[in-house]
User: Fold these one by one.
Assistant:
Number 1:
Amino acid sequence: MHISVLLDEVIDGLNLHDDSVVVDATLGYAGHSSEILKRIKRGCLYGIDQDGEAISHSKRQLSSIGDNFVLIKTNFINMKEQLAIHGVVEVDAILFDLGVSSPQLDTASRGFSYHQDARLDMRMNQDDETLDIFSAYEVVNNYSKEELTDIFFRYGEEKFSRQIADKIVTYRRNKPITTTLELVEIIKSAVPEKIKCQKHPAKKVFQAIRIEVNHELDILEESLQEALSLLAINGRLAVITFHSLEDRIVKNLFKKASSIDNVVKGMPLDKIPVKYLPKFKLVNNKAITPSAVELSKNNRAHSAKLRIIERIR
Ligand SMILES: C[S@@+](CC[C@H](N)C(=O)[O-])C[C@H]1O[C@@H](n2cnc3c(N)ncnc32)[C@H](O)[C@@H]1O
């Protein structure tokens, strides 16, 4: 079961109307989308996910609420061109709820979990059955020690990146690393005893590999830019992130989009030509985080941050 994070805050923040056209760029199990659909009786919801199982489940779920929705199985980097195919060039609200869903994590065979044994996989899009499959297995077994150190450090902010990469490379000289728990044991052997008692020692490395396999950070900024370019005046974009690397990308992009152009910085506001005024304003200056009540009910909400921006001209 997936419990949607910051559900009330997202629904309030998207400023929905009966006839809103809305895009849920990370449909998942349609938790947010179900609440959105209930509020847009004369509008339309476009739900995007690259995971076929998420699309099938959501289709059944949303059909019990209404029929004014279209589901598109694709990577959200393709959002603009896919919406154009459906004749949509402007929308009133867009939501990104990044990362993986609980069903993805809980299905052992997907290989996302460091608690359950499975083949190293971690692909969100499982359709690629060609010989060129790129999954966690390829990252762990084919990347050089330097490449592994770099992704563990950059995408996991892992302090023991070098030591872990070193152990991986030594281990795989004898045999390939094929399963999640095999990798967990190698990671455990590389980190000091006292670290093992704190957070799960494999958490950051698994996050880093997942980001690498799914190119998560590479596509985020470009996808958010595309999302901003789709917003109608008064339209809103809401983004929920789950780690500091994603949040930094969202924060910086939103700050830039809502700032006055450098060319006219320092000029009195009423003298600045309209073309240099920002097209967007931040709806909340600081990121919205889950309430104590939500945190007590949903462990996954702990690192969540919500940022919302509105097109004003
Ligand atoms: C956290 S879940 C969304 C949960 C959803 N908001 C709900 O309440 O049920 C994130 C979803 O986004 C999808 N996803 C992540 N990155 C994606 C991408 N680049 N393109 C398309 N879907 C993506 C994942 O497959 C997953 O189903």
Number 2:
Amino acid sequence: MDPPLDFLKSFESAVDVIKKHITEGNTIHIITHNDADGIASAGIISRTILRSGGLFKTTVEKRLDDVVFNRLAEENPKIIVFTDFGSGYLEKISQSLPNQDIIILDHHLIIGEKPDNIIQINPLNHNIDGSREIAASGVCYLLSKMIDERNKDLAHLGLIGALGDQQDKGNQKSFIGLNIFLEEEAIKNNQLKKKVDLIFYGYETRPIHRAIAYTTFPFIPGLSGREDNCVAFLNNVGIEFKNKEKLRSLSDLNEEEKRLLFSSLSNYMVSQGCDSSSVHNIIGTVYTFEKETPSTPLRDGREYASLLNACARMMRPSIGLSIVLGDRNESIIEAEQVVEEYRRKIGTYLDWVHENNRIKELSNIYVLDAGFEVDENIIGVIASILQGQGILKNTKPIISAANSNDGTTKISARGTDFIINAGLHLGKIMQEAAELCGGSGGGHDIAAGAFILQDNVEDFIRRVNEIVSKQSVR
Ligand SMILES: [Mn+2]
């Protein structure tokens, strides 16, 4: 399926503007969001400019606010490209940065009318579902290929954001919509191979117990992050994780062993209170990046996305950017250390949530108010994991909150297919509730966020609970 013509046409002015600035030798400033999609997006654009002989400067931001806009206005670059955010801040961007070319490459909720001095590429303007059918990295890939056809070898990188933003919403965790177009291009270029199997990271390359322990989505209580428990689990169900002295990977298991592993894991998850849909999530489409070295975390598309996310969330985005730009030396070693710390942090936070019974159930939402106990950069990941475990009811979204040291609170909201079908749009709910509390919010229907002042958290939660009951058509 090719991208619709009106969508492709919307890229033309951006292509011209970027080419012009490359030719004139101007440094192209890229500002991106601090998650896997943001890093992949900025990486694709940076690599495109680099290949075209241009200059770029890439910075990663948690959010767009006056601090960022004032700094950019002061630097006064000739061109700024916003990737994976921007559509929620059209008016602010236009007013704060009137003197330069502005390009926005985004797939989030568009708030307000687009001012004339901004070029915006957003699938939502073309009846394409930006939450499920293409991520910002996919938009960046399409732009990259239009700047130079030879960049079609970056198609697989365009899918990293889709995996990071959990757009694998098709049958057996496959892609839908325009992501399939990218997938086909990547397969044609021999960059990508797919198959349906157990979904644990490092399917071909990692010892089984480690593959299970290292996987963040789905997060299996007691096994994820716990190599020791995974070894005990395998011993218990009678699956040899060693063949003589060689550790076996999932691809070494025969069909019968795979079935045994699946049914044992399912039974275990059910005993832990997980629902059937989360159990099914351990099987899905595995995306292998064929040109990456088998022993590295970049070989598996989901693991690559998770690694970039870790770099972003642990405030080391430049490591992730170097990797997308092509560094396969120092950056990999550093990234693996960051991932290790990140995994440990997530485990500690989840233990804290469970031990202290921190999830409160209100009439229409679940609430996790973590105060200062969870890093604001990681609260969204925690909300996604809690939501994906299938222990909470799928009829209510989870709204999580973590305080920052600057007096604000980061809110992350995560929904389920059920509540989206019931008519909820979390991005719009975050926008409305945040505005009523003097903050700002937005995002996708199924995953969204907001920033508010710490004093307003209670008020905000109360309003969200109210708006959910109004918006829902249940
Ligand atoms: Mn995104």
